[in-house]
Amino acid sequence: MTPILELRGVTRRFGAKQVLAGVDLDVMPGQSLVVIGASGTGKSVLLKTILGLIPADGGSIRLDGVELVGAPARTLNAARARIGMLFQGGALFDSLPVWRNVTFALAADGRMAGKALRARAVELLAEVGLGADVADLGPAELSGGMQKRVALARAIAARPGILFFDEPTTGLDPIMTDIINRLLVAQVRALGGTAVTITHDMGSVRRIADRVAMLAEGRIKWTGPVAALDSSGNPWVEQFVEGRSEGPMRIAARD
């Protein structure tokens, strides 16, 4: 089977810090891939580099065989249109009501307008477990869990071929975390099952992943099925899964 998304030797540096140091990664059609790694290892940078929001310094990123590194704006925009993104923190527009947040992409490309947009927003909100009464609220009037669900509704609005989730359960309590994880699984399946999620929450990993990739020192150190996490034999994975301070990952402690 040919990967829908293929990364080879992807690099990205910020000043003296090499964040991505040659990432090789395949995402297969119908696969839910979760990238794990400690905070500050470049997981969010990886997603934003794939999207072209942060340009790669080198390497290759191919979406269905189309090269995105160094591609013109038209190619990048076409790629982004195929990807639904749930940003860390939701990234809702404070100045817009919920229904306009949800249908932002649909309005921008002219697919819908007026009452049809609001009606579609209500349908999408229902898919993530929110009622029509939420549609006219502002983001500031929502709880953290509700904001995540609104952001998920926005991510699926255009029925994308791939979904990206950036730390989707950060800051949520255990019950809301489980609700969001269940919604993610349901929506990934409804849209064909291709997703890339980054997280450091092992409970979420076990709930939503088909395969797992370990990112450390700017490279993928291990990939394998989620069922192999506890028997990977990989010291990076073992340290992360077991939550040990000692191991190949050196994280400075501060008083």
Annotation keywords:
single chain; 255 residues; alpha/beta; Rossmann fold; six-stranded mixed β-sheet; four-stranded antiparallel β-sheet; 10 strands; globular
Protein model, in words:
Helices cover 33% and strands 24% of the residues. It has 255 residues and is an alpha/beta fold. The chain has nine helices and ten strands. A six-stranded mixed beta sheet has the order 6-7-8-3-9-10, with helices on both faces. It has a domain at 5-82 and 160-233: 3-Layer(aba) Sandwich (Rossmann fold).
Second CATH tier, the architecture of the domain at 5-82 and 160-233: 3-Layer(aba) Sandwich
Order of strands, main sheet, comes to 6-7-8-3-9-10
Name the CATH superfamily classification of the domain at 5-82 and 160-233.
P-loop containing nucleotide triphosphate hydrolases
First-residue to last-residue Cα separation: 50 Å
**CATH top-level class of the domain at 5-82 and 160-233:** Alpha Beta
CA radius of gyration is 18 Å
The CATH topology annotation of the domain at 5-82 and 160-233 reads as Rossmann fold
N-to-C SSE string, H for helix and E for strand: EEEHEEHEHHHHEHEHEEH
Record field, number of beta strands: 10
The poorly predicted ranges are: none
Quickly give the structural class: alpha/beta
